Amino acid sequence: MPSDSLKPRKSPRQARSTVTVAAIFEATFQVLLSEGIARLTTTRVAQRAGVSVGTMYQYFPHKQALLYAVLDQYLGDVVIAIEAACEQYEGASLREMSDGLCRAYLDAKLRHLPGSRALYVVAAELDTADLVADVVRRTDQAITRVLMTASDAVFGDVETVTFALRSMLVGTVQAVLEKDGSPESLAILRAQLPVMSRAYLLEASRSRPNARGEPAV
After folding, report:
1. Is cis: bond before 2, omega within 30 of 0?
2. β-strands 153-154, 206-207: how paired?
3. pLDDT (tens digit, 9 = 90+) per residue, 91-141?
């Protein structure tokens, strides 16, 4: 849970409020890109979002609370995408499972480009230990659960495999986005990350025998 100083004053409950907060979050991305985190203020964000400063303060008492909320929603969207992919590929082959998970993760991470690149800077500026811990917990639970259902492979230590796979996905994408978010680099990332993931999982797994007792892979 965030500290009291980072909690929003209130959460949107009606459709109009939800639209207002969405506009504020989008404006935050825009100001981060055009001004940088040092020059981002709630006043600038309110002006860009087309809302009053008073409306802004109804939700976010200060800059840090706003940035924390934006990061919270962004990471939450990524986790939801991973959980949905893991549910979708339960019982699939290891190859299908790996490729589907990579696609879901990349789509979620790249959906808000170029603004999402700025969130790495935001994360470094805030106390996000509890937020990150919850994201890691949910992600690892989803990945572990789906790996255990692979139709053609089993894992001797699925928790270790989950840790390594998640670390590879997160670290590789972060390295590319932080240093080079060019279309060429992103195209390479989309092509090669599934290959890396698939190769690791196949190496870390043991093939599951088919009905005739023969290895399925």
Report:
1. no
2. antiparallel
3. 999 999 999 999 999 999 998 788 778 888 888 888 999 999 999 999 999
Evaluate whether 98 touches 143 at the Cβ level (below 8 Å).
no
Q: Read off the pTM.
A: 0.85
For residue 160 the two structure tokens come to 């270790």
What does the DSSP assignment read for the chain? Answer: ---GGGS-S----SHHHHHHHHHHHHHHHHHHHHH-GGG--HHHHHHHHT--HHHHHHH-SSHHHHHHHHHHHHHHHHHHHHHHHHHHTTT--HHHHHHHHHHHHHHHHHTTTTHHHHHHHHHHHS--HHHHHHHHHHHHHHHHHHHTT-SSEE-SSHHHHHHHHHHHHHHHHHHHHHH---HHHHHHHHHHHHHHHHHHHHHHSEEPB-TTSSB--
Task: State the burial class of residue 89 (Cβ atoms within 10 Å of its Cβ: 0-12, 13-18, 19+).
Answer: buried
What are residue 82's phi and psi, to 5 degrees? -65, -45
Per the structure block, which two tokens stand in for 180? Answer: 């080079």
